[in-house]
Amino acid sequence: MPGATVTFAQQVGNIPNYIFPITAVNAFASGNLSFLQPLLFRPLYWLGTGASPVLNPQLSLANAPTFSNGGRTATITLKHYVWSDGTPVTSRDVQFFLNLLKAGEQNWGGYAVGDLPDNIVSFVAHGQYSFSITFNKVYAQQWLLNNQLPGIIPMPQQAWDKTSAGGAIGNYDQTPAGATAVYNFLNHQSMTLSTYATNPLWKVVDGPFHLTSYNPTTGYAAFVPNKRYAGPVKAKIGHLIELPFTSNTAEFNALRSGAVDYGYLPTTDLSQASYFTAHGYAVQPWPGYGINYLTINWSNPQVRPLFNQLYIRQALQLVVDQPLWIKDILKGYGYPVDGPVPLVPKTPFVSPLEAKNPYPYDPSRASSLLAAHGWKVGSGGVATCTRPGTASNQCGAGIAAGAPLAFNALYPSGVQSFTAEWEVWKSNASKVGIDLTVIPTPLPGMGVGVPCISGSPCTKDMVNWEGWGFGSAYPDGSQVFSPPETGGYYSSTNNANINATHLSNSSNAVFRYENYLATQLPVIWWPNAPSQISVIRTTLHGVVQNALGSFTPEYWWVTK
Question: pTM of the prediction?
Answer without folding.
Answer: 0.90
